[in-house]
Design a protein that fits this description.
- There is one protein chain.
- The chain is an alpha/beta fold.
- Helix content is about 45%, strand content about 15%.
- The protein is built from 17 helices and 14 strands.
- The chain has helices spanning about 10-20, 35-40, 50-60, 70-75, 95-110, 125-145, 165-170, 185-195, 210-240, 245-250, 275-285, 290-305, 305-315, 345-355, 365-375, 410-415, 430-435; strands spanning about 1-5, 25-30, 65, 80, 115-120, 155, 175-180, 205, 325-330, 355-360, 380, 395, 420-425, 440.
- The strands form 3 sheets. It has a 6-stranded parallel sheet with strand order 3-2-1-4-5-6, sandwiched between helices. Strands 11-10-9-12-13-14 form a 6-stranded parallel sheet.
- Helix 1 crosses helix 3.
- The chain is elongated, with a radius of gyration of 24 Å.
- It starts with a strand and ends in an 8-residue tail after the last strand.
């Protein structure tokens, strides 16, 4: 099938590439000419495991093309994906200006029936707004004699459920494929598009458009709720003298709960959970509904991001000015370079405000950190995790990268001025750390050493 994808970010680039990989003819279009030029050269704008090789392979095979030419892109695809950003507006609601601009662009250039697919995460009612915007443009074109009155289109909601760090695998082997539409013709077209991904068992779930739009928000908000709830229980466990890791295993063994998204830590970040929780709260406010649970989830997460700094301040007192802290992990999660809403940013900014210096290392997010904060005297970006330790007063672990799981603890002790470790991801066993001579702080467990 011939497919057009507007937007070459996480969703658009991954979805377009995987569709091309199963044989569809895909054109990805973006207004950023520099990004398109780099993609043509095989330079990927994001870090996502497995993506670079697939982009190069499918581009070389001619199944995946990149362009800034919207007219050509609209002419190419019978199915037009809208996969542009929906950043939070000033009040936290989703900003739909880019989605609606793409809808206009499609309407301005289409000369035959098109299926317009909302792939971006959008509030309930967005498909109606897209449909209205396209209709308005087509009517204006008809008045000018550019198109006939018979030109038709359909708007489908097809939310993505990709996780940064495993987006390629999620796209290749989706858990479910949600299709929101009242058009049987569009359902059949989408079934054909996704047939290569539903061979083992049926993964397509068809529903009305508004239910599909709400499903995406409900899924992300449910996961965010699990994280915030577990962090709340961790804080309670710490004060009661319980071990949150034992509690986690105890409740995770219940199949009604499961082990996913119940790891205590320093809060969620990234481009999805914070934005989507806020957007659904704003949607609820707009219909005079008090989303109490969602507001509590958001508040708990914001407070949880201050946990590490509070532990550091409690240990060192008010004597933080002039101290140096080694930070392992800057990205909001492993296997990505994304620092949007990352807990590391809250911690670093609090340390700087207290007069401390940061020596940081992350396997992928160093360039992004430099872009965000520039060159400053109180931030040193180190080439290795070992280099970040030298002369620091303590080590702070913020992101649970695989390479941090079994470090050389003797080296850590030698490099630090004192053996103090603040673990925001509960990567190590407290008793073992105490035996090694560390003063060890974690989340939801009593301090050791």
């Amino acid at each position: 099938m011939k497919v057009t994808v507007f937007g070459t970010g996480y969703v658009g680039l991954v979805q377009g590439t995987i569709l091309a990989d199963v044989g569809h003819e895909v054109v990805c279009v973006d207004v950023d000419a520099e990004k398109i030029a780099r993609l043509e050269q095989g330079i990927i704008p994001i870090y996502e495991p497995g993506l670079e090789g697939l982009v190069k392979e499918n581009h070389a095979a001619g199944r995946l093309r990149f362009t800034t030419d919207a007219a050509m892109a609209v002419a190419h695809g019978d199915i037009q994906f809208i996969a542009v950003g929906t950043p939070p507006d000033e009040d936290g609601s989703a900003d739909l200006q880019y989605v609606l601009k793409v809808a206009e662009t499609i309407a301005e250039h289409m000369d035959a029936h098109r299926i317009i697919v909302d792939k971006s995460t959008v509030p309930v009612g967005t498909a109606d707004r897209v449909r209205q915007r396209v209709s308005e443009v087509l009517k204006a074109r008809a008045k000018k004699g550019e198109v006939g009155k018979a030109l038709t289109f359909d708007v489908v909601s097809n939310p993505e459920f990709l996780k940064e760090g495993s987006a390629v695998a999620d796209c290749q082997k989706p858990d479910r494929i949600i299709i929101g539409t009242e058009s049987e013709e569009s359902v059949e077209a989408m079934r054909e598009l996704y047939a290569p991904f539903s061979r083992q068992h049926e993964k397509i779930i068809v529903m009305d458009v508004k239910s599909a739009e709400l499903t995406k928000y409900a899924a992300n908000c449910m996961l965010a709720t699990k994280i915030s709830f577990m962090n709340e229980i961790a804080n309670l466990a710490e004060r009661l003298g319980a071990d949150i890791e034992a509690v986690r295993q105890g409740i995770g063994s219940d199949p009604r709960i499961g082990y996913h998204f119940i790891y205590p830590g320093v809060g969620y970040g990234g481009s999805c959970f914070p934005k989507d929780v806020q957007a659904l709260i704003r949607t609820a406010d707009g219909i005079d509904f008090d989303a109490k649970v969602l507001k509590a989830v958001e508040a708990r997460n914001a407070e949880q991001k201050t946990t590490l700094f509070a532990k550091i301040r409690d240990h060192f007192g008010d004597e933080l000015a002039g101290r140096t802290f080694a930070l392992w992990g800057l990205a909001f999660k492993p296997n990505t370079d994304d620092m949007r809403e990352a807990p590391s940013r809250v911690l670093m900014e609090a340390l700087w405000a207290a007069g401390a210096r940061v020596q940081a290392y992350d396997p992928e997010a160093m360039e992004e950190t430099q872009r965000l904060y520039g060159h400053r005297d109180d931030l040193i970006l180190c080439g290795t995790k070992e280099a970040a330790l030298k002369g620091a007063d303590a080590l702070v672990i913020v992101t649970e990268w695989q390479s941090f799981r079994a470090p050389d603890f003797e080296l850590i002790q030698r490099q630090l001025t004192q053996p103090v470790l603040f673990d925001g991801r509960n990567m190590y066993d407290p008793a073992r750390m105490a035996k090694k001579g560390f003063t060890y702080y974690s989340v939801g467990r009593l301090p050791q050493g």
